[in-house]
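[09:14] KT: can someone run the structure on this one? pasting the chain below
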Amino acid sequence: MSINFELVSPEEKLVSEPVYMAVIPGITGEMGVGKDHASFVVALQAGVVKLFASEGDKAPRKIFIAGGFADITGENCTVLAEQAVNVNELDKKAVEQELKDLNEDLGRAADDTERKRVQKAIKLVNAKLTAVTE
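[09:31] RB: done, structure tokens below
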């Protein structure tokens, strides 16, 4: 029993395949989606989408998303992500450097608008760092 899963970002369709279960980062926490799931649309926060090929799968495919929405039906789960990248393509050192640079930018922020923009970017990069260290 599988569900048709698609993950699309503005740049590309990253995934289009049947999966046993998908775990997605809803804004209220992680949620599992499998065949015959109730239909609804859910907002997603930055985090990791985990795709399980079969029951008991110990090594799910992991994809970092920068938020978005999921459209779920009993047969399909479509994730529309703001950004998406396979976790195994993330470079931990590069993410750590990005976080360091953003923290420096925060200290130099000229006004509240700039500070809020940098804080939002820091939150996203922290989620990315969590994804790459899990």
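[09:33] KT: thanks! The longest strand covers residues 40-52.
[09:34] RB: yep, looked fine to me
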